[in-house]
Write a structure and sequence with these properties.
There is one protein chain. β2, α3 and β3 form a beta-alpha-beta unit. α1 crosses α6, α4 runs antiparallel to α5 and α4 crosses α8. It contains nine helices and five strands; from the N terminus they run ααββαβαααααββα. The protein is 47% helix and 8% strand. The protein is of the alpha+beta class.
Length: 277
Amino acid sequence: MLSTHPQRSTADRRAQALANADQAARDQARRDRRTRVVLGAAAALAVLTVALVVWFVLGRGGPRVEGISELPEGVDAPSVSDAHGGISFGASGEAGSTSGEDAVRVDVYVDFLCPACAQLEDVNGTDLESLRSEGSATVVLHAISFLDAKSDGGSYSTRAAAAFAYVADEAPAQAYDFQAALFDSQPTEGSAALSDEQIESIAVRVGVPADVAEGIDGERYRDFVGALTQVAFGDPDLLDAQGRFTTPTILVDGTVFEGDWSRPGELRAAVEAAAAD
């Protein structure tokens, strides 16, 4: 006897799978965010210690490169990235844009699995977006990867950074919202990593065209992310007052911001003071 129910098309099944993955990511994000609030900024910052730096240098695959400040030749980099691997966002909001020569340059080094980086976005994301959209600042994001070992399989730090690079290149108008959404859906360190399908769902949610989102994978810009990470760890200008490189690291017009970014308005005030000089 023939079924009276129409068969679901491949597109329908894919849409349902994306919706299920999206809901799972949202549920996990809500649980993770409650955990981060309880722990507080101080505990999150304590996660990023010198031991992680040592682990990165000694344990990450690939050759150790010391003292480099630019991407090596031959690395497949997004067309919107600069020589240091940074991807800028100016008043237009598109990846690769700037707010002009008079705007303050704000470089932000993050790892998408870093809980302190998610808190940076929580506390300062609106301010940075406002400064960028009004043309006072150019925000340059450096999505590095050194916390792959902190996700339960899946090399999440690298895959998320590579996905951001891909979206910046293929859907520059949605890239800024995409990086914020990755933090909003950040898995807890030590928990299961988000799948490529879940990352794709996050991209679609912020407006990345479906055909572009379907092309997201963690391989195309894996070498770029690795090189960008080595640039960050090899640049002595990025060290904090204790001589360490940690994430998040913020530069305001080329100088490491040593204020308390966890205090609302403090980073914005530093950017506005630099603009007034």
